[in-house]
Amino acid sequence: MSPNSSSSSSPGALRIGLIGFGPFAQFLSKTMIKQGHSLRVTSRSDYSQHCAHVGIPFIRDMNEFIQMDNDVVLLCTSILSLPQVVKSIPIQCLNRQTLFADVLSVKEYPRDVLLQALPDWTDLLCTHPMFGPESGRNGWSGLTFMYDKVRIKNEDVCSSFLNIFATEGCKMLEMSCDEHDKLAARSQFLTHSIGRILDEMEIESTPIDTKGFQKLIEVKDSTAKDSFDLFSGLFVHNRFAWEELTSLEMAFKKVKQKLLEKANEELDHSTPKSRSSI
């Protein structure tokens, strides 16, 4: 008996269908299986071998997948591919009330796409685990899990899904999608922007690194590991991101101007001998 099927009868266990099974979905699935939830996966990419290894059914046909007895359908797609993925879901084949949830790094965009595509009798929960395979590799205790109950009729299923993260010790933060995006534009998008700039500069560790510089290396390395599609998705589909990018550019220009003014001031007060040496 597979690890997944052997635990599917655990009290409070959910039947969770995952759409998309990249590294982040695989990361989440390990904890879901550990807790006794029954998983099944569909994806445009072929993850059949990996699913077989961990004991999760891989369903190639989306019609078959959506007609399965899913309590929850969890979208783990990329931001940019979301419209195509949602369009491929045969919504008319749904045969029961289902909770649709997502784990995308922007929130207003998937909320609006799913509200437009899903029938009124389905439930919708928008979430963002503020951690990933690296930051959560030693457990999720103390890590933030943001969620917005956009449209919930079945509180039991919703609570059971949220409990996946609460029982692991996550800091549960209920927040509207628009508030999330406003804050994430400054925290997540700004961090990724600085990391990408440092990556373009090709900065590397030196024999005389300060602690501060080591942290910059960490920011560069962590953001460069993510795909550029993720970075562009954070920009294109967060209406607050352009403002932060503009602010970053203006702040750089102000700092540069202050440095030039200070340099000119020092030159004006330097002796002819020291001035000629610059």
Q: Care to describe what's here?
A:
This protein has helices at residues 3-6, 23-35, 48-54, 62-67, 82-88, 108-117, 155-166, 177-200, 211-224, 228-236, 241-269, 272-276; strands spanning 15-19, 38-42, 72-75, 99-102, 123-129, 144-151, 171-174. It contains twelve helices and seven strands. With 278 residues, it is of the alpha/beta class. It has a seven-stranded mixed sheet, sandwiched between helices.
State the gist of this model:
By secondary structure, the protein is an alpha/beta fold.
Summarize the amount of helix as a percent range: 40-55%
The proportion of residues in beta strands is 5-15%
Q: Low-confidence spans: pLDDT under 50, at least 5 residues?
A: 5-9
- Largest β sheet strand count, sense and barrel closure: 7 strands, mixed
Physical arrangement of strands within the biggest beta sheet: 2-1-3-4-5-6-7
User: Can you give the mean pLDDT?
Assistant: 93
User: What structural class is derived from the secondary structure elements?
Assistant: alpha/beta
Q: Summarize the helix and strand pattern as letters.
A: HEHEHHEHEHEEHEHHHHH
Quantity of strands, as a count: 7
Q: What is the number of helical segments per DSSP (H or I, 4+ residues)? A: 12
Radius of gyration: 23 Å
Report how far the terminal alpha carbons are from each other: 76 Å
What gross morphology would you assign? elongated
